[in-house]
Amino acid sequence: MREIVIGFLASMFFAVTFILNRSMELSGGSWLWSSSLRFIFMFPFFLLIVFFRRNGKQVLQEIKKQPLPWIMWSFVGFVMFYAPLTYAASYGPGWLIAGTWQITIIAGALLVPFFFTEKVKTAKGMKTVRKKTPKKSLAISLFILAGVLLIQLQHASSLPLHTFIAGILPVLIAACAYPLGNRKMMEISGGRLDTFQRIFGMTLVSLPFWLLLSFIAFIDSGAPSTDQVVQTFIVAVFSGVIATTLFFVATDRVKHNQGKLAAVEATQSTQVLFVLAGEVFLLSSPLPNGLAIGGLFIIMLGMLLHSYLSKLSSPSQRTPFLFHKSKGEKL
């Protein structure tokens, strides 16, 4: 239950991304700057965190052991996640992007059998098998997704087809890349790194890609405006630092339970609620109609079901939030 609350808080801060990315696009800002500046601004924050906690050297050692997996899955989890998301903001409103993004709540569960294995004890000894999709959690996530689709129906009919497609396809890529990259990096780090270390390492190895995107942005559209720099900094702090840390903490706490992991990932569905509220008050979007309100109730009911299912399988002992110690970490 506690992990779901953490995921819910992460969702609230993540919503800033969709609202401000759309705001920057409406004011003429380049999606390349919106994308690259967020991670460039994130890097000093996590550099300071690992510096003061004196465990940055451990991250570098882990990267040195497996450089290619770190680069590949950090690219998937960060670059293939955020670059398509900001690109999509050029073609669709925040509610469309946030709504389509909810595919991530089922993408993580569906990808499990294809990318993840585990060792199980059999009569013949230990055997490596593919992990199974958590069916109950997947069913509830599909139920939540139905609520998201109801919200989308209010607006989708008013959009041109090409805008609708351009605003959806990149988000579908991002929605699959984010949980896949996150889960694979948890697997690669193997519990040896804590949340801050893992985010720092992923940001570090993906930094060359963001610097390349910022160079392309400068050649293509010149330097970013002051307004875009300020808004991107806000996104970096609220979404990149606070939300990413909360979400990674929640998923790290339940990484050995696929059902609970799916439940935590499903908390991201509540982003639609925050984005709708933010766009109504900040960007003067229309209020939800009766159908959309029904979708909101379905999302909330689905999250309650996920919380109940998660509580049934909760262990009696929990790791204190943010204060657990990774193997080899010096406090």
TrEMBL record:
This protein's UniProt keywords: Membrane, Transmembrane, Transmembrane helix
Transmembrane helix as UniProt keyword: yes
Pfam families in the cross-refs: EmrE
Residue intervals passing through the bilayer: 5-24, 30-50, 70-89, 95-116, 137-153, 159-178, 199-219, 231-250, 262-284
InterPro entries noted in UniProt: EmrE
Record-given protein name: Multidrug resistance efflux transporter family protein
